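Worked example 3 (structure in, sequence out).
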């Protein structure tokens, strides 16, 4: 194939792919992100099975530096604990809590309200604080680091508090504000 024909062929093939998936770098980055999520989930399973933090991080040492391994372990503990605890409030079709992961930083949550009054909001969030506390997780204002409650989610529609581990509030790095 001549150079012009090959370039035209590659351009047409690239145009058929969705925007953003036209480079090898993008595809590799997406694969890397999926692999990190899978590694974090496996680390959480080992942690829940009783393996020590040191043992888990050591097993991932050929892939991650020690500090990065610890960050991934603890941010994964946070996100998987939150997903487990918040499942009743996330169920479709009317799940009102959304969890936003931020890589190795603290995840944030948001409550999606339609036109519910405060009493309906309070009823729908009943038990949320207790479920998170039972999982060892709290949520706080990302700027002030002040702990929040379901009442704060009820009254502030724009609130997107960050999650944190109750026994080690500063273990997982905050999201930039």
């Amino acid at each position: 194939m001549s150079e012009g024909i090959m370039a035209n062929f590659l351009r047409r093939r690239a145009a058929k792919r969705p925007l953003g998936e036209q480079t090898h770098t993008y595809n590799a980055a997406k694969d890397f992100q999926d692999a990190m999520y899978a590694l974090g989930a496996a680390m959480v399973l080992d942690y829940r099975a009783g393996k020590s933090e040191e043992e888990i991080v050591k097993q991932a040492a050929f892939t991650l530096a020690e500090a990065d391994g610890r960050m991934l372990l603890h941010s994964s503990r946070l996100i998987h604990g939150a997903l487990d605890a918040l499942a009743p409030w996330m169920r479709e079709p009317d799940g009102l809590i959304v969890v936003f992961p931020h890589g190795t930083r603290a995840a944030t949550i948001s409550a999606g309200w339609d036109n519910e009054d405060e009493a309906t909001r309070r009823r729908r969030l009943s038990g949320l604080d207790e479920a998170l506390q039972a999982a060892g997780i709290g949520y706080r204002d990302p700027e002030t680091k002040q702990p929040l409650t379901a009442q704060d989610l009820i009254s502030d529609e724009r609130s997107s508090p960050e999650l944190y581990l109750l026994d080690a509030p500063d273990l997982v790095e905050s999201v930039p504000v």
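Notes: The first strand starts at residue 97 and ends at 102. The chain has a mean pLDDT of 84.
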